[in-house]
Amino acid sequence: MGRFVVLVLFLQHSCVSTRHVSAQTPDHQAVPVLLDNMDGPETELKLVNPRAGLFILQHSIDPVHAQFGGGSEHVRLTCPAGESAHLAYPIPPAPVIGELRIEARAMCNRPGLRLAAMVVLPRTKNMATGLPYKLLVRGTLNNQSGNWQTLSLSNMSQEVERLARVARAQHGGTIDQRGAYLSHIVMLTPGGQGVTELKIDRFAVYGVISTDLVLQSATGSATENVNPSTKHGATNNQDHNNKQPEILRIIQWQSEPFDQLAKLGFDAVAMRRLPTSSESAQAQRSGLSLICPPPNPKQLSEQGLDDKYSSVKIWQIGEQQSVDEIELVKRWQQLLKRHDTNDERPLLIGAQLYIREASRIGDLVLLQRPVLGTNLKLNEYSTWLTGRRRLARPGTPIWTTVETQLSPQSTQQIEALFPGCGNQNSASYPQLVAMTSAAIGAKCSGFYFRSDKSLANQDPYTRQRALSIELTNLHLGLAKPWLTNGKIMPGARSSRPGWSALVLRVERSYLLMPVHWSHSLAADQPFNPVGPASFVVPGVAESSEAYLLTTAGPKRLRHERVTGGTRVSVDELPHDAMILLSDDRRAVAQVTGYIRRHMPRAIRIQRELVALRLQNTLQITQKLGPSITTARTLQEQLGQSRRELQQCDQHLAIQNHESAYQFTKSIHVSLDLCEKMLRDAVHPQLPYGLTTLPNQLRLQSILSQPTDRSNRLTGGEFENLSQMLDVGWRHQQLPQEGISTSVRLSPAAPQSGSYCLELEAQPHDKMAPPAVVPAAPVWITTAPVSVKKGELVEITGMARVPTKLLGSVDGLQVIDSLGGLEMAHRIQSTPSWQPFRILRVATSDAPISVTLALTGMGTAQVDNLAVHTRSVPIAPTAQTPIRDGKKK
After folding, report:
1. How far apart are CA 688 and CA 810, in angstroms?
2. Alpha carbons 830 and 555: distance in angstroms, whole number
3. What is the distance, to the nearest Å, from the Cα of residue 448 to the centroid of all Cα atoms in its chain?
4. Is 11 in a helix, a strand, or coil?
5. How many alpha carbons lie under 13 Å from residue 437 in its C-beta half-sphere?
6. Predicted confidence (pLDDT) per residue in 526-551, tens digit
7. Phi and psi at residue 417, in whole multiples of 5°?
8. Enclosing H/E stretch for 553
């Protein structure tokens, strides 16, 4: 059966700039779903119609002749007169819909260049080849030569439909155009006497495309070709030689439209209840899996489990707090297995204390702990995750929560301390990247994004959170093939202190994810890049090339063989950059294609985030008072940021995404400096984020007012044990195998008086202590302290932890009942006595208490624990003038 060709008439834009085209054609203002500036690092065009007399003489990236990016793709060939060379550019499947349009920016030394598209009909088989039927949709001949031209091709849905009718009339049989998609952009390059030269500077696709990035694993299997049970992370508790199950990105559902969550890049939605039939249908249409709790044991026993919950891909049961609850879950799981007709539907169980028991019952284990807003460092968080993973049954896939906002209890306290700021403390993009990187380092295979409020809200802080999440999912999408089919190798050491790189390998391709492990998640992390930096990676083939992967595309890097492996050097390292080392041209092309497909959207997100950040910084500057806004350096930086944002918009308007990206990066650097100046203006500063700075001045004013400083806590001097017991102090312990504990009033060097409180936990075998202490083995809770709603509560004390505790990253925890574990104060190691201070607001008239928890093996001492209250309400007061970062 012959090939059918259709001629598509289109408006020809020759010898005009992209800006001119956009001005004349309103729909060109749409953002392309694929944009490739054809500037390398590898060539993309392939000759698909080889024949006698057609030869490729040269095929390279020309770094000089280009209007966009850092070069153009240059082809020199010979082709007989009257014929054309078909040079094809592969793209992800793009459905042939009314909105589908392709554009090319090209230059040819001959007239007759033509833009075409290869369209696949997946429902119709070509009887000659046994493959899906294909159509070549051609544009009109272009009679220009020797200068840059913009070629466009649209109206393909109408032409394909018409062509199908013609094919049926001519050949009979079934020609089904349903599901037709564009697979290649084709440049029909004219032949003639001498050499034909073609330069391609840009391809753009408008409409919808598939976005999955696929690399082959060592066994040759692609990411889509997974067993249904492993598709959601279940591996039947077998360790597959360090191979990771497929990565899943899950979001807690807060009644948002499912299509919005799909656009944010999620694979699944976690619900707190069983879905309705309407919700199941909507999720399925959006391509989302559902995760929800199963029917309870009574419902299972009485009603069974029918097919109406077939849309649920994973059952989830929450965290268990006792041995009795574990037994209940075990019986629940047995009932579920008996009644569930889907044998491959895994069970996800939340666990923190009973991790091993949970991993014996469920197929997946979810680890969760508050990290956002704490002083926990990334290396400590990764160590915590790794330790919990080791407690689980070998081979059990581990998921972890990714906090997109502070916990409800933390939010309540921040709102009470700093009115109007409670809902303004969400995770920034650098914080989300940091949390997911730490989880990847601990070999977690599922990212369970915790969200307590709807992402459909339109306030600036929710918009910032949604955009940051979407950009994080794009970032994870680039690493997805390595996380799914690859192995996590030993880390790459760095020339920068506190840095190293995670190394993931698929066949001959290595992906490096640089991480600043000494960063904490206590406050906003800087956006600005660091450099220069180098990383040494063992085991890389000498033929490999190195590329820096950023939102703006790949960039070749210097690399050399050194002792211990290959050293890769970079002059400037953005906080979210990755590094690719590979000698597999196909892998490089796939990664490059993924970045370029998502470049327009990713840089648009970067622009929106930097605009929201600039707006927030301006508002905080104004709230801090007129004196701070007159600081010359601050005003210069803010003015420069506003000008650069305008320039960024101008470059986005002409689709110059690389330049727009550079402007967003420059604005972030300026805003990092501005925020540092604002923080320096408030001293002492509390670790509650930039938005609380104006209210921190008001809080300082309240704390400076004279008040009754009597200690409301009886027994906090730790001098009289009988008195402490009489008023309600409690000693509690959690027996753990291989660990003994003790609590006493110790005369050993108290901070004041005759005694101090000493908590101790020691291993039975000092030569082989437990590697991980899953929960605090011993703790002391104070007597209750009466407070009134609205009172400011100040908790102070002195602590000494002579050496870092074994088996835990949390050290001595000071936990107050108002802030809870989410806001616990951690004291890891301090050989001498050090003060601590906690500020809270009573949210009710209920008594409060303080818990001192020893989370690992070792010794900790506490003295002079006190609770003071103030009845002064937290309300706006006169601000302290600030000039040049100092109070006057």
Report:
1. 20
2. 45
3. 11
4. coil
5. 30
6. 777 888 999 999 999 888 999 999 99
7. -75, -40
8. strand 553-556
